[in-house]
Amino acid sequence: MGVSIRLKRLGSTHKPYFRVVATDSQRPTQGQALEHLGIYDPLVKEKALKVDTARVDELRRQGAALSPSVSRLLKRAADLQKA
Questions:
Q1: In what order do the strands lie in the sheet containing 3-12?
Q2: Which of 13, 15, 42, 80 has the smallest number of Cβ neighbours within 10 A?
Q3: How would you classify residue 27: left for phi > 0, otherwise alpha for psi between -120 and 50, otherwise beta?
Q4: For residues 77 and 16, is the Cβ–Cβ distance under 8 A?
Q5: pLDDT per position as a tens digit, 24-58
Q6: How far apart are CA 12 and CA 77, in angstroms?
Q7: Is residue 1 classed as helix, strand or coil in its secondary structure?
Q8: Which overall architecture, per CATH, does domain 3-82 show?
């Protein structure tokens, strides 16, 4: 049983938004999350991303794995903060 940090899709048809969640890697993608870490709204012009990065870093140190999409989002957010 490992913990993974991934996106959970919410919203309606053609109007998605996502929660960044920590969940058991054995659970279904849309199953119950262990913890909500942030949100991502791809339809907003600035691509709104709000994530508790301190908590993500703490979970990573404890062995949690990032999904490829969450990894890309966090890298993009870090690049935007540097600029």
A1: 48-51, 35-41, 15-24, 3-12, 65-66
A2: 13
A3: beta
A4: no
A5: 888 877 778 899 999 999 998 777 888 998 999 99
A6: 25
A7: coil
A8: 2-Layer Sandwich (3.30)
User: b vs e for 25-59, b when ≥16 Cβ sit within 10 Å of the residue's Cβ?
Assistant: eeeeeeeebeeebbebeeeeeeeebebeeebbeeb
Average pLDDT, the chain: 88
The residues spanned by each domain of the chain are 3-82
The 10 Å Cβ neighbour count of residue 7 is: 19
CA–CA separation, 66 and 27 (whole Å): 15
CA pair distance 49, 69, nearest whole angstrom: 13
Q: What is the pLDDT of residue 1?
A: 60
